[in-house]
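Why should sequence recovery work at all? Because a backbone constrains its sequence more than one might expect. Tight turns favour small or flexible residues, buried strands favour hydrophobic ones, and helices have their own preferences. The token representation captures these environments compactly. In the example below, the structure is given first.
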């Protein structure tokens, strides 16, 4: 009997993670980022390396087949560029500092968190606007940053931004894109302050 129980428990643990398909080389970083989004435990997400992603290092989106499913049964994919260019040299993305990768992945999970609340029709409109409207890109990327910070990932997000903006000589075009479309480090610090103050007020209120 004990072997049957052990087998059932093992199967249950497998099922909990069966929704996530992760390359072995970045498994630790992906699992760490996912730990901040427990609500995504049963959401189907495939993390996949791609040779090249235009204007980005990572990209999260619903799978094509998901537009024929209810939003609660959608599947998502996070594409990860195989390489990133630093100082005119191509480096494998999987070899970047671990905390930087965690922050990058955490931002993409913020996109998925945003997508989960949208209808299929809304998502189609969202994708169309993203292609042609800078204003919409700013809103989408800042929203993903916001979700990551609200889930407590600010340290990783800040390390990723510091890596892009200050630590390395990444393509100036990409750096300017990050400055234009994403939350700045100062904005993230302000957001964390607001979050912590709100949580403190709520805790104080609950004690009354």
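From this structural description, the recovered sequence reads:
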């Amino acid at each position: 009997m004990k072997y049957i129980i052990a087998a059932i428990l093992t199967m249950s643990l497998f099922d909990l993670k069966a929704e996530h398909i992760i390359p072995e080389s970045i498994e630790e970083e992906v699992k760490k980022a996912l730990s901040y989004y427990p609500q995504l435990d049963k959401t189907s997400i495939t993390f996949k390396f791609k040779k090249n992603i235009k204007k980005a290092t990572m990209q999260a989106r619903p799978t094509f087949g998901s537009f024929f499913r209810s939003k609660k049964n959608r599947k998502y994919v996070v594409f990860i560029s195989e390489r990133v260019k630093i100082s005119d040299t191509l480096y494998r993305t999987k070899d970047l500092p671990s905390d930087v990768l965690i922050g990058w992945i955490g931002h993409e999970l913020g996109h998925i968190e945003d997508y989960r609340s949208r209808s299929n029709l809304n998502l189609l409109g969202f994708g169309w606007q993203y292609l042609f409207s800078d204003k919409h890109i700013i809103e989408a990327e800042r929203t993903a940053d916001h979700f990551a910070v609200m889930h407590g990932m600010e340290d990783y997000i800040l390390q990723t931004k510091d890596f892009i903006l200050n630590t390395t000589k990444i393509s100036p075009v990409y750096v300017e894109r990050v400055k234009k479309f994403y939350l700045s480090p100062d904005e993230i610090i302000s957001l964390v302050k607001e979050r912590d103050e709100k949580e403190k007020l709520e805790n104080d209120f609950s004690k009354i």
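A few observations help interpret the result. Strands lie at 20-21, 44-50, 58-62, 75-81, 83-86, 89-92.
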